[in-house]
Automatic annotation (TrEMBL):
Taxonomic superkingdom: Bacteria
Protein name: Class I SAM-dependent methyltransferase
InterPro entries noted in UniProt: SAM-dependent_MTases_sf
GO molecular function, one term: methyltransferase activity
E.C. numbers: 2.1.1.-
Pfam families in the record: Methyltransf_23
Any Gene Ontology biological process: methylation
Keyword annotations of the record: Methyltransferase, Transferase
């Protein structure tokens, strides 16, 4: 069971997370110039997020090291994301995952013919793999979360790899690749997007989805989370794809940062979105702390979010 110190480190508002990290250059364009867009996360803990001044890609600063991220996923992620695993993924997770898998399989139906090779990068509990296998596709997943990968293998009988480096698949191998809410967790999302693009057949499609940091309807700080070390908006997601030789496929529905991309031979232009960083700094500007605290708007979201994590953390099963 996690210690009270663990609880303090991960849930106490207005304190930082237990990590040191290191500054990094932008993974998309390589620039080191940036604009601060947030100082707290959805738990009201101290967490700085910056937007690259050249291209607008948002990242955590300082960036957690690979070891710190691994440690976070090993100890804190489960309680943070309320996916406690005694006896398998919680029912509400499986329901949501099944709905999302059905939606994705429906969207990509024109490409999911019998015999098509499909990769789900970040395959979670395996619902999408099961859905496409039912259509006669050859499906394989990559999922570093051991518990989820084990669940997918056991309950859906699907093939899931723990990880996959560049050499794991030949270039031009897959008809369809999907990656659903994975890129925001990676230290090197632009490099991973390039790898996925390389594995894709010339006429293949890549479905990619991440949270939209420019979404309206909730307080800006609610969009920031320690596990999300990169933040995208429509422009930066498309630019990440563009760098990897991909453009939005004109025949498919898209919504902001949920997109189906196709390959292109057109040369990549300058990796820049002039003015985007400054715009994000304004759009994501938090309410003044005093006004926000006095409004009480933080109480219910925080209680709701933390109640289950507290229960999972402290109640014996
Ligand atoms: Zn950049």
């Amino acid at each position: 069971m996690p210690s009270p110190r663990y609880f303090f480190n991960h849930f106490m508002p207005f304190t930082g997370y237990p990590y040191t990290g290191a500054p990094t250059a932008c993974n998309l364009c390589g620039s080191t110039r940036s604009v601060t867009v947030a100082e707290t996360d959805r738990r009201l803990k101290t967490l700085r997020s910056i937007a690259c001044e050249q291209c607008g890609l948002i990242r955590t600063d300082p960036m957690p090291t690979p070891a710190e991220l691994a440690d976070y996923y090993a100890t804190a992620y489960r309680a943070d994301y309320q996916l406690a695993f005694a006896g398998g993924p919680p029912r509400n997770h499986l329901n949501r995952s099944a709905r999302e898998a059905a939606f994705r399989a429906d969207l990509l139906a024109p490409k999911l013919k019998a015999g098509a090779r499909v990769l789900d990068f970040g395959s979670g509990s395996g619902e999408f793999l099961a859905a496409v296998r039912a259509k006669g596709c050859e499906a394989i997943g990559v999922e570093p979360g051991r518990d989820y990968a084990a669940y997918a293998r056991t309950h859906h009988g699907v093939e899931v790899l723990d990880d996959a480096d560049d050499a794991r698949f030949p270039a031009g191998h897959f008809d369809v690749i999907t990656t659903h809410h994975v890129m925001e967790h990676l230290r090197d999302p632009a490099d991973v997007m390039a790898r996925l693009s390389r594995w894709l057949k010339p006429d293949g499609v890549l479905y990619a989805a991440v949270p939209n940091m420019a979404a309206t309807g909730k307080p800006p700080h609610e969009r920031f989370h320690f596990a999300h070390v990169h933040g995208f908006v429509r422009e930066t997601f498309d630019l990440t794809a563009r760098r990897a030789g991909l453009v939005p496929h004109p025949d498919y529905w898209r919504e902001d940062t949920t997109v189906v991309y196709a390959k292109t031979d057109a040369p990549v232009g300058r990796l820049a979105v002039p003015g985007l960083a400054e715009r994000l700094a304004v759009d994501l500007k938090p309410m003044p702390a005093g006004a926000y605290l006095a409004s009480g708007a933080w109480i219910w979201p925080m209680l709701r979010r933390n109640a289950k994590a507290v229960r999972d953390t402290f109640v014996a099963r």
